[in-house]
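My main concern about presentation is that the manuscript never shows what a single data entry looks like. Each protein is reduced to its one-letter sequence and a matching series of backbone shape codes. For the editor and my fellow referees, an illustration may be useful. For illustration, here is how one protein appears when written out as sequence plus structure tokens:
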Amino acid sequence: MGDLAALRAGLAGLDRVVVAFSGGADSALVAWVAHDVLGPGRARAVTAVSPSLPAAERDHCAALAADWGLRWSEVHTDEMEAAAYRVNDADRCFWCKDALLRVVGPAAAAEGAVVALGVNVDDLGEHRPGQRAAADAGAVFPLVDAGFTKADVRTVSRDLGLRTWDKPAAACLASRIPYGTEVTVGILGRVERAESALRSLGFSALRVRHYGDTARIEVPIDDLPAVVERRAAVVDSVRAAGYRYVTVDLEGLRSGNLNAALDPPPPPPPANW
């Protein structure tokens, strides 16, 4: 199990840290503990803002930072200007994290800090090329070093009283677009509008996968009856976002399931990550 004392000691040993702060359970725990251990003078939280980040998530980060007294700022990243990102192949996340580190890395270096990401042990077995970009740029993964799984993150966060302990995972909007379909601001906006509308209906954990004129909705299996029960409102909401056809995935919500389309599957990260 992840060891909070080890996490605290690891962050203390870094002396100064800039946390890539998405507002999810993982990065929120790292940011909160870093602030608690190092204080605002030596710990900073930075949120990367781009068309792939829902506006609600940016506002969530700002609110958390204010509530917790974090030294927080936002930075704007330029991954949408890179053809290698827009082409949306299996390495898309590499170019996203590369853009983040090109902005955050120099800012961290200017204050003698290291960049820390909220990667946990469970993430290491998934296809996440962004981890490679971060490691190549010298970023560190304090949760991995302290042995935290996703379940550990949620348990420790709950014990600390952090309201992010049960926040549903919220990957970037580009993760809703199948590999090989170009990432555009228009598509990202359409996905964001559809997901925002569904959240207003009470569905907190969801994905709207983009397939041209068709939206494929994923919610947890237990929420499928509610989607059917509110079928008319669901259809109207998603169509209002710009989709013609509205479908529901009967397999339910699976984070990262578009990776199943990769053939052959990507190799796992090195064992020492």
Observations:
- The mean pLDDT is 91.
- The first strand starts at residue 17 and ends at 20.
- DSSP finds eleven helices and seven strands in the chain.
